[in-house]
């Protein structure tokens, strides 16, 4: 009978949880601790009930019994404290960080109330721990008084505080499945968390992880209070104050009701809460190339050339607009012409257009990937920064006439120049976690290495109950190479972006079964598009072991293509550099879309850059969790080119809250 009433949380998992002391455990670990504490309490009762009442009341045993109880107490305490240290500190930091965001809302008041009650219970609990430490000199009457206060049905008693704590987070009263929980504090906090990416960025976790954390923090406090009450009844009975059978029953019933309500709300809440995690932009002036973003370079870049060099006849009979796809044909007048004074475009020229008959051009420094800083027209308008003076020497270029009748204008074209200054490669090799050693993927980031973009994976050991052994977290070494090496092949080892092969498919690949986690990632080419594929491996939740990873793993991708009309194109028009935006990027793409790499705005940047940029910040939820999906998306602001960035979908813990209860 005892075993059926309140080992509620234990039943959720349905199995004896192994105690993984020492390892930093996250996620479902609170469940394990609750189970373990509950079991320890039960054992303590056995100890008392084995002793005949007569012996207890005889008094001689009181000291030794008290010590035995306090031994149990310290065992429980060690468990609770360990978990608390690891997990709750994390949560407190989150709450602290989010305080600013919640400022001026009534949420902050409600959080304070919750914190006050938590503090009160913790104080009591610490007091009990002190007793335990000074057990040898402790008068039995002290303990008796303390425990009496705990179970007293007065308005200031522990049991009242516990009720209030619970009510402050989950609302009061019994919870019916169809009841509206949307006004409870936990739901409001989660809703507010979901409402703006700012929260996710500060807390570095998905909304579902956040909801669970809020639950876990309070569950731990409730557990402490509950444990103190059990302990108090034990002491009361042991000291011969009575049996308290009915009181215990009531107390346990209430405890169970609260747990039911909390879990039911959590279950419903987590079922509706997002599991996506991605990285916000760094602050406006904190974008650092090579640290927070990387660029594809010189894919299609603004380039000025005289018409006479755009055709093999060295004529100027056409107009700039007639040259859609051509080559530069040397330099007609190397001495006095612009073409002799600028590095040539060693590639094809596209989409030429006339801009003005008199130009002042500021060449960029030799080093970088730009060709020009700005171009001024004769009429005073300009392309690119109208800004501070030119660091190098400005160059003039004006239309001229040949044979009087032929006017030779300067055209503005897009130069596609593969070569040492053009980083335009994407790795096509698969990257997989070390699944034979039970490692799974816990994070991802883009890396540009030896001019090739890779998706690099973070891996860690999966352990029981959806937890990660955080001491094993590591980034997988890059499988990198030099594209010019003899045995490295285009469209096999890597993909080369070009004018007609520069699309990236934007997808989120998620396993739809609950027992699968991400163990790998790769790009493939579908209709010349870069297309993401994610590898999944089944695992056993209670053992934390991957199930036959060699044979049961599979790759999943989105086969929809623009050819069959199922994939929609997102277009960037006249976009400025994303690093120039005052406002942080927001996700702008959806799954089943794609976007091309394009040149930046002619007007704002002389089309010198390739957009979007690529966000290379690591996408790693804290605490580490298994992932059930991974994707590539585009984030930005209208008018700016934005970034391509990876995102992850955290493992759905809600599924395990709803497993059949025993
Ligand atoms: C206390 O409980 C025991 C068994 O649990 C029972 O035998 C005994 O009669 C009870 N005593 C009182 C005073 O209720
Ligand atoms: C050229 O690049 C080097 C190293 O990358 C840097 O130290 C130097 O300042 C650059 N020069 C100019 C003119 O930008
Ligand atoms: C790649 O190899 C070429 C020739 O072997 C070399 O010149 C170049 O520096 C290498 N590039 C990188 C990024 O290692
Ligand atoms: C966690 O990783 C550490 C270091 O690799 C290892 O010693 C420990 O046994 C692991 N814990 C579990 C539960 O596997
Ligand atoms: C995933 O969902 C699709 C349809 O949405 C279904 O056909 C397929 O069987 C599901 N796969 C698994 C492993 O559940
Ligand atoms: C997980 O492993 C345990 C222990 O080996 C086994 O009893 C259980 O059936 C497994 N669960 C599933 C879903 O395979
Ligand atoms: C997607 O295409 C690949 C390769 O053509 C094929 O193996 C796979 O079965 C396809 N997947 C779906 C869901 O159609």
UniProtKB/TrEMBL annotation:
Coiled-coil annotated residue ranges, if any: 66-101
Signal sequence coordinates: 1-21
Domain of life: Eukaryota
Keywords: Coiled coil, Signal
InterPro entries named in the record: DUF4803
Pfam assignment, any one: DUF4803
Protein name as catalogued: Uncharacterized protein
Native organism taxonomy: Eukaryota, Metazoa, Ecdysozoa, Arthropoda, Hexapoda
Encoding gene (name): Dana\GF11569
């Amino acid at each position: 009978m005892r075993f059926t009433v309140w080992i509620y949380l234990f039943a959720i998992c349905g199995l004896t949880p192994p105690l993984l002391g020492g390892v930093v455990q996250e996620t479902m670990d609170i469940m394990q601790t609750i189970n373990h504490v509950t079991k320890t309490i039960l054992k303590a009762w056995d100890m008392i009930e084995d002793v005949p009442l007569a012996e207890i009341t005889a008094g001689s045993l009181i000291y030794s019994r008290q010590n035995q109880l306090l031994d149990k107490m310290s065992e429980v305490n060690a468990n609770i404290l360990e978990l608390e240290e690891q997990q709750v500190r994390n949560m407190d930091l989150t709450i602290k960080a989010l305080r600013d965001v919640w400022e001026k809302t009534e949420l902050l008041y409600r959080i304070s109330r919750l914190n006050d009650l938590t503090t009160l219970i913790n104080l009591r609990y610490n007091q009990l721990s002190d007793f335990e430490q000074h057990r040898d000199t402790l008068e039995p009457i002290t303990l008796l008084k303390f425990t009496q206060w705990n179970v007293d049905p007065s308005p200031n008693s522990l049991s009242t505080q516990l009720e209030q704590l619970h009510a402050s987070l989950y609302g009061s009263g019994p919870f019916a499945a169809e009841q509206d929980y949307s006004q409870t504090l936990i739901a409001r906090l989660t809703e507010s968390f979901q409402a703006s990416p700012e929260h996710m960025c500060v807390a570095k976790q998905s909304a579902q992880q956040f909801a669970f954390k809020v639950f876990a923090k309070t569950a731990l406090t409730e557990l402490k209070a509950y444990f103190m009450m059990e302990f108090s009844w034990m002491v009361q009975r042991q000291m011969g104050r009575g049996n308290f059978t009915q009181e215990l029953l009531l107390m346990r019933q209430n405890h169970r009701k609260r747990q039911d309500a909390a879990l039911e709300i959590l279950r419903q809440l987590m079922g509706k809460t997002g599991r996506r995690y991605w990285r916000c932009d760094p602050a406006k002036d904190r974008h650092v190339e090579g640290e927070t973003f990387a660029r594809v370079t010189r894919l299609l870049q603004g380039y000025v050339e005289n018409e006479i060099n755009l055709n093999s006849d060295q004529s100027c009979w056409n107009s700039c607009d007639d040259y859609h796809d051509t080559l530069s044909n040397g330099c007609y007048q190397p001495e006095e012409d612009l073409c002799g004074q600028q590095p040539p475009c060693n590639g094809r020229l596209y989409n030429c257009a006339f801009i003005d008959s008199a130009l002042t051009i500021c060449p960029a420094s030799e080093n970088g990937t730009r060709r020009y800083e700005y171009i001024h027209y004769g009429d005073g308008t300009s392309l690119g920064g109208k800004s501070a003076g030119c660091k190098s020497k400005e160059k003039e270029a004006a239309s001229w006439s040949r044979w009087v009748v032929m006017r030779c204008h300067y055209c503005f074209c897009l130069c596609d120049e593969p070569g040492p200054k053009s980083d335009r490669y994407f790795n096509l090799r698969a990257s997989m976690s070390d699944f034979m050693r039970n490692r799974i993927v816990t994070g991802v980031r883009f890396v540009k290495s030896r001019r090739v973009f890779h998706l690099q994976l973070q891996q860690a050991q999966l352990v029981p109950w959806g937890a990660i052994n955080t001491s094993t977290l590591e980034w997988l070494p890059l499988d990198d190479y030099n594209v010019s090496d003899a045995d490295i092949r285009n469209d096999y080892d890597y993909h080369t972006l070009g004018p007609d092969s520069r699309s990236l498919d934007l997808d989120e690949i998620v396993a739809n079964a609950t027992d699968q986690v991400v163990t790998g990632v790769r790009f493939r080419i579908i209709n010349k598009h870069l297309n993401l594929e994610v590898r999944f491996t089944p695992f056993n939740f209670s053992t934390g072991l991957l199930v036959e990873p060699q044979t049961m793993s599979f790759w999943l991708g989105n086969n929809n293509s623009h050819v069959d009309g199922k994939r929609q194109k997102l277009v960037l028009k006249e976009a400025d550099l994303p690093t120039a935006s005052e406002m942080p990027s927001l996700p702008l793409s959806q799954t089943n879309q794609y976007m091309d790499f394009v040149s930046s705005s002619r007007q704002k940047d002389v089309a010198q850059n390739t957009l979007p940029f690529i966000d290379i910040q690591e996408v790693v939820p804290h605490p580490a969790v298994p992932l059930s999906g991974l994707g590539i998306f585009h984030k930005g602001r209208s008018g700016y080119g934005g970034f391509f960035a990876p995102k992850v979908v955290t493992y759905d813990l809600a599924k395990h809250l709803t497993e059949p209860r025993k």
